[in-house]
C-alpha cells in the first residue's frame, strides 16, 4: 500500500464537502467572519469540547446535538468575532436560531448542524447580521472554499490554518482535511481553539469518537492540557463516507488513525507557531517520569512558567528557571537525579544539567541554542520510563501589547 | 489594654537584636549583598520553607538546623546575588562553611545559625568573598542596622521591605519586627521570597511554630500558593524573650497572633507592590465557594492568568477572561450562579456580572476602575459560604523586559 500524501488542500478536500464564507460585520476589523461547512451526504460525527466550567452557548447546543444525533450530521456554521459565552438564556436562544436559520438555507433539519463561535465573551450575537451572513455564505458554497472558511474563523490569528492528507486504503484512498484557529498564549489561557476535521471515509460514529479522542491526546491536548481550555474550545470530526471506503482491516485502521493524528498534530503545531506575539516554537520533552501524567504535569508547568517564557524571549539559557518550574509541578522527584538538555531540530543536544547540577557547558553555545527560532528542551527526571511532550512559545512584549488592548 | 502601634522600625526593633551588612561582590550591580542578624540571647525559632521539589542548599541545611535546635538560635546569615540552588554537594558544603564561618565571628555554635541565600540558580558561592563579607558584616553589628539588612537581601526588589509593631501585653509590651524580599511575579513563578521576623516576646518553640504557620496561610501563602514556591523561599521567626514577657493569657495570645499576622500581611503586601514591572496592585476575593481550598484555587487561577493580567495592564475591564480563568481552576460550579464586581479601596463596587451574564454597567465606569493603581475584584461562585483572597499584580512590558535579560 502506498504512503499517505499531504496535498495542497483544506477541510473541503474530502469528497462531498463544500464551504462558504461571508463578512457580516461581527469582527471590528471587518473581513470574513461567518463560515458554513456542508456535506452533501449525512455524516457520522465525533467531538471533543472544552472542560472549562464556563461554557459558551454553542458548546451547550453542540453537546445536545451530538447526544441526539451522531450519524446524520450535514454541516457546521461557525462565526468569529463574538464568542456567545456568558450570554445566558438569550445566548442559547441565539445559538438555536443560528442553527435553525442555517438549516433552512441548507435544506436540512437544525439538529443536523453544529454551531461554533469564537471571539469576545459577554456580547450577544446580532441575529440580523448572522442571518444575512448565513444567506451570503450559503450562496457561496463550493468545494474549493475550504480556505475561505479557514479565513473566516480567524480572530487574532495572523494566518489561516489548514491541511489535507490522502490516505491510501485497501481498494482506494480517502482524504482527511482540516482547518483550525487558535489565539492567546494557547495554554493555559488560550482564547478559543476551534478545529474542524473532515473525511470521506465511511466510519461508524462510535469508532470515529474513539479515533478522535486518541488523536487529540498527544496533539491538541499537548498544547492545551486537559481542563485548561477556554469557554468555546471544540474539535469536530465529520465522516461522510462519500469515498465508500471503510476501515475494513487492522492495517487500514492503523493507517487512518496515524494520518488523523498527523492532521491534528500539524494543525496544533500551526496554532502554536501562530501564538500571539510568539517569536519562538519550543518543544518540551519530559522523560524519566513514573507516569505519563506526571511527565505531562511537569512539562505543562515549564511550558506555562512566565519566568521560563520570558527567558526564552530574551535568548537567555536560564535553566535554573526550568528546574524551579519543574520542582513546583506537584510531582515528587529527587533533584539530584535530574538531567537537562537543550537543542534545536537537527542538532545534537547540549547537556546543561547532570545530577541536578550544571555541567561545564560553554555559555556561548547555550546562548546560540536559546537564540534559535525553534528550541527543543529535554528534562529527564530520573524516576521512571514515562514521558510527555508539550509545545509552547516564548512570552514577548508583543504578547503583552496584543492582550493589553484586544477588546477595547 | 492599649492597641498595637506601628513604629518606624525593622527587624532589629525588638530588644536584643542587632544586624550588620556588607558588600562582598555577589551582586553584579554591586551594593550590600550579605546580612547578619544577631540576638544577644538564645531564641526559639520557627520556620516555613518552600514546598518546591528542587530546594537550595541553605533550605536543606536550615531544615536540619531547625530539627536539631529550635530553642537556642542566635542569628541568621543571608546573602543575595547567588541562590546556592542546583549546586549539589559542593553547594551544601558551602552553606555549611558559611554557617561555620559566621559562628566564629558571632562566638556561637554553627547549629545556632540559619543560612539564607537568594539570587541566580546554578552558581557556586565564592567562599572567599563570603568570608570577607562575614568579617565586615560582623564588625558592623548594631541595633540600628535592620534597614541595612533589609537592603542587603534585595535582588530585583526596587526598595527595602521592613516593618515593626509594638504589641501591648499584660505587664508591658513586646515588639515584632520584620524584613522581607521578593521578586519575580511572586506567584506562580516567584523568584525567592525571604522573610525574617523577630520578637522580644518569650514564646516556646512549639507555640511559635503554630503561630507562624497560622500567620502565613492568609498572608505570604496568598501571594504564593502552597506548592508554588521557588527553590529558596523561607520565612524565619525568632523570639529571644528579651522583654521577659510571655503570652500568659488568651488575650495576650490573640493580640500577639493578630499583630504577627499583620506584620506578615504588610510584608507580603510590600512584596506584591514591588512585583517586577507591576503597575497595579490587585486584590481578588472569591466568595460563595464550598470550601476555602476551592475558593483559593479559583482566586489563584485568576491571579496567575496571563490573559487577565495583561488586560489589567491595559486598563481593560475584560471580565470574560476572569470568568474563563475561574472556569478552568478545576473547581466545579454553575456558571449561571456567578457574580462579579470590580472596585477600588473606598469605592462601592460596580456589578459587572450577575447570574453568569453581564449587567448593563457603563463601560466608561468599568474602564475608570480598571485604570486605578489598586483594584479589588470580587467573584462569587454562588455555591457555598467559603471565601479566599489573593493579591497579585498586572503583567506589563516592563515585566517582560526585566525577565528577558535578568541573568545574562
Q: Can you characterise this structure?
A:
Two copies of one chain form a homodimer. The first copy, chain A, has 408 residues and is α+β, with helices and mostly antiparallel strands. Chain A has two domains: 5-273, L-amino peptidase D-ALA esterase/amidase, CATH 3.60.70; 281-404, Ubiquitin-like (UB roll). Chain A is 32% helix and 27% strand. Chain A has helices spanning 57-68, 88-106, 127-138, 146-152, 205-216, 250-273, 292-304, 306-313, 319-327, 363-370, 397-404; strands at residues 5-7, 17-22, 34-49, 73-82, 113-120, 161-169, 172-181, 194-199, 234-239, 281-289, 339-343, 350-354, 357-358, 374-380, 386-393. In chain A, the strands form two sheets. In chain A, strands 1, 2, 3, 4, 5, 6, 7, 8 and 9 form a nine-stranded mixed β-sheet that branches. The radius of gyration of chain A is 22 Å and the shape is globular. In chain A, 62% of the residues are buried.
How are the SSEs placed, and which strands pair?
The structure is a homodimer of 408-residue chains.
Chain A: E1 5-7, E2 17-22, E3 34-49, H1 57-68, E4 73-82, H2 88-106, E5 113-120, H3 127-138, H4 146-152, E6 161-169, E7 172-181, E8 194-199, H5 205-216, E9 234-239, H6 250-273, E10 281-289, H7 292-304, H8 306-313, H9 319-327, E11 339-343, E12 350-354, E13 357-358, H10 363-370, E14 374-380, E15 386-393, H11 397-404
Parallel strand pairs in A: 4-5, 8-9, 10-14
Antiparallel strand pairs in A: 1-6, 2-3, 3-4, 3-9, 6-7, 7-8, 10-15, 11-12, 11-14, 12-13
Q: How is this structure best summarized?
A:
With 408 residues, chain A is an alpha+beta fold. Chain A is built from 11 helices and 15 strands.
Amino acid at each position: 500500500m502506498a504512503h499517505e500524501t499531504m496535498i495542497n488542500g483544506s477541510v473541503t478536500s474530502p469528497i462531498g464537502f463544500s464551504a462558504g464564507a461571508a463578512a457580516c460585520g461581527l469582527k471590528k476589523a471587518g473581513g470574513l467572519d461567518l463560515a458554513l461547512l456542508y456535506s452533501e451526504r449525512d455524516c457520522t460525527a465525533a467531538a471533543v469540547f472544552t472542560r472549562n466550567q464556563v461554557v459558551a452557548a454553542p458548546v451547550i447546543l453542540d453537546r445536545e446535538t451530538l447526544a441526539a444525533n451522531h450519524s446524520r450530521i450535514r454541516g457546521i456554521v461557525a462565526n468569529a468575532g463574538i464568542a456567545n459565552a456568558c450570554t445566558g438564556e438569550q445566548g442559547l436562544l441565539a445559538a438555536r436560531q443560528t442553527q435553525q436559520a442555517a438549516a433552512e438555507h441548507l435544506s436540512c433539519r437544525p439538529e443536523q448542524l453544529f454551531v461554533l463561535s469564537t471571539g469576545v465573551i459577554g456580547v450577544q450575537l446580532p441575529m440580523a447580521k448572522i442571518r444575512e451572513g448565513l444567506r451570503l455564505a450559503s450562496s457561496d458554497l463550493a468545494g474549493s472554499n475550504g480556505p475561505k472558511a479557514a479565513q473566516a474563523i480567524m480572530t487574532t490569528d495572523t494566518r489561516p490554518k489548514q491541511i489535507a492528507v490522502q490516505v491510501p486504503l485497501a481498494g482506494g484512498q480517502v482524504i482527511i482535511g482540516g482547518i483550525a484557529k487558535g489565539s492567546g498564549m494557547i495554554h493555559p489561557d488560550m482564547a478559543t481553539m476551534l478545529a474542524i476535521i473532515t473525511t470521506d471515509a465511511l466510519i461508524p460514529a462510535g469508532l470515529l469518537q474513539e479515533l478522535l479522542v486518541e488523536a487529540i491526546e498527544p496533539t491538541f491536548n499537548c498544547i492545551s492540557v486537559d481542563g485548561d481550555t477556554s469557554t468555546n474550545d471544540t474539535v469536530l470530526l465529520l465522516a461522510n463516507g462519500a469515498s465508500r471506503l471503510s476501515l475494513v482491516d487492522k492495517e487500514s485502521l492503523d493507517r487512518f488513525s496515524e494520518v488523523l493524528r498527523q492532521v491534528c498534530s500539524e494543525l496544533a503545531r500551526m496554532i502554536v507557531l501562530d501564538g500571539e506575539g510568539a517569536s519562538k516554537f519550543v518543544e518540551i520533552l519530559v522523560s524519566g517520569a513514573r507516569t505519563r501524567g506526571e511527565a505531562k504535569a511537569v512539562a505543562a508547568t515549564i511550558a506555562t512558567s512566565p519566568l521560563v517564557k520570558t527567558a526564552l524571549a530574551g535568548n537567555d539559557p536560564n535553566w535554573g528557571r526550568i528546574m524551579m518550574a519543574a520542582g513546583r509541578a506537584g510531582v515528587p522527584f529527587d533533584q539530584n537525579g535530574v538531567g537537562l538538555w537543550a537543542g534545536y531540530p537537527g542538532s545534537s543536544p547540549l547537556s546543561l544539567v547532570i545530577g541536578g547540577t550544571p555541567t561545564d557547558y560553554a555559555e556561548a553555545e547555550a546562548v546560540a541554542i536559546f537564540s534559535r527560532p525553534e528550541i527543543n528542551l529535554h528534562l529527564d527526571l530520573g524516576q521512571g520510563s514515562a514521558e510527555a511532550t508539550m509545545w509552547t512559545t516564548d512570552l514577548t512584549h508583543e504578547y503583552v501589547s496584543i492582550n493589553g488592548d484586544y477588546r477595547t
